Amino acid sequence: MGKSLLIVESPTKVNTLKKIVGKDFIIKASVGHLKDLPKKKLGVDIENNFEPEYITIRGKGKILQELKTAAKKAEKIFLAPDPDREGEAISWHLQTAAKWQDRSDPPKRVVFHEITKQAVEEAFQHPRDIDMQLVNAQQARRIPDRLVGYQVSPLLWRRVQRGTS
Hints:
By secondary structure, the protein is α/β, with parallel strands linked by helices. Helices cover 43% and strands 15% of the residues. The chain has helices at residues 14-21, 61-72, 85-98, 117-125, 132-159, and strands spanning 4-8, 25-29, 35-36, 44-45, 51-52, 55-56, 76-80, 108-109. The strands form three sheets. It has a four-stranded parallel beta sheet with strand order 2-1-7-8, sandwiched between helices. Strands 3-6 form a two-stranded antiparallel sheet. Strands 4-5 form a two-stranded antiparallel ribbon. The protein is elongated, with a radius of gyration of 18 Å.
């Protein structure tokens, strides 16, 4: 039986998790978000139902490639970024950027609130699909933040003070 790939958000969790899950896992860190709205333009298609335009964050292409390479060697993929809407969005961005949803056995999401043997084992007993309601909740926060920031910040800079957001 081949190894499984476990992807967490923070590199500081990798060594602790290695002790818990053992040699059957390759553990990698995404180091936070890999995709985001572009910095130099709005990145939201207002004419097309406010569709976001995600791009790979500068400097994260290498991490994404490392994760894709590790996934090719893995029998199963488990996504374990933080247990919140940001972690859910990171999981979704990873899956779509790497096109893992097309695998015969797509990645599963595992969620643990503490890194203890019991919590991690419990999470692996209940793997699930990515919760698109949480992904949509993250987008529902991120997109208006971008729209307001891009449209209001320049006004504030002219009227109040440069650099105000």
